[in-house]
Amino acid sequence: MKKSLLLSVPALALGAAALAMPGAASAAEGSSYQAQLNALNHSSASGTLMISLNGSQATITENVSGLADKFGGNPYPHVQHIHIGAKGECPTTAADTNGDGVISTTEGAPSYGGIGTTLSTSGDTSPAAGTTLTVAPSGASFNYSRTINLDSKTMAALKDGTAVVVVHGLDPATLSKKAQGEKSDLVPSLPLAATSPALCGTLVASQMSAMPGGAADTGGGSTSGVEDQALLGFGGALLAAGLGAGAVAMRRRTAAQS
């Protein structure tokens, strides 16, 4: 009996030491985060997003469907970001303070905050790239996968539970007549639908290390050739609608506010 007790003491001590190790604490906090993306503003879309961290390096996988599909006959670009610096929540209908039936980007900001990281298909991921349409995932559905480095502010928001994924871009036909006639709250040369949120989800610690079922690599699936499509066809449609100039102005304003 004494021998059994003596053998159990080292085992208990090792268990306690393991719990006290920094690595164990990090595992408890989680090195993976996930968000269930739910529809906002009459959108019928849905999606999931996962972040797997290795230090500040983040591998992001996302599956989205049901978004607005076309604009001017070309795939609709959906700029998307990790928003930070606020409550870490998705807004409710109470956020629609002007009563037009749409929660605009600025009306939702008290809930989810400003841009921390832009989830672009290539190139810049800073807030300055927040409205770069040629590197936004496009179309009604897409599988997104990219490995990027997160800055300290976005990392802090993940750990604090205040990081929120927002996917922008609504089908104007689903909005009220009043909202259809309104300009973007960010850039007056853009329609309200172009910059208003369609999907939103708070990132929470996850026990999974990968998205169930996986996702296509960036450049595959519906994100394939997005830059060529935008440059060859979509750019003309945007310029005709005044969206090209608005995107530049919006990008500058976003960078100035970040």
Largest sheet, strands/sense/barrel? 9 strands, antiparallel
DSSP helix fraction: 25-40%
Q: What would CATH call the architecture?
A: Sandwich
CA-based gyration radius: 21 Å
Structural class: alpha+beta
Can you tell me the CATH superfamily?
Answer: Superoxide dismutase, copper/zinc binding domain
Rounded mean pLDDT score: 78
Order of helices and strands: HHEEEEEEHEEHEHHEEHH
Give an overview of the whole structure.
The chain has 258 residues and is an alpha+beta fold. It has one domain (29-209, 222-257): Superoxide dismutase, copper/zinc binding domain (Immunoglobulin-like), CATH 2.60.40.200. 32% of the residues lie in helices and 24% in strands. It is built from 8 helices and 11 strands. The strands form 2 sheets. Strands 1, 2, 3, 6, 7, 8, 9, 10 and 11 form a 9-stranded antiparallel beta sheet that branches. Strands 4-5 form a two-stranded antiparallel sheet. The protein is globular and about 45 Å long. The termini are far apart.
Q: Which labels suit this protein?
A:
258 residues, single chain, Immunoglobulin-like, disordered N terminus, 8 helices, alpha+beta, nine-stranded antiparallel sheet, globular, two-stranded antiparallel ribbon, disordered C terminus
Chain-wise SSE layout:
Blueprint: H1 2-20, H2 22-29, E1 32-39, E2 46-54, E3 57-65, E4 70-71, E5 74-75, E6 80-84, H3 105-112, E7 114-118, E8 142-149, H4 152-160, E9 164-168, H5 177-180, H6 192-195, E10 197-202, E11 204-206, H7 226-240, H8 243-257
Antiparallel strand pairs: 1-2, 1-10, 1-11, 2-3, 3-8, 4-5, 6-7, 6-9, 9-10
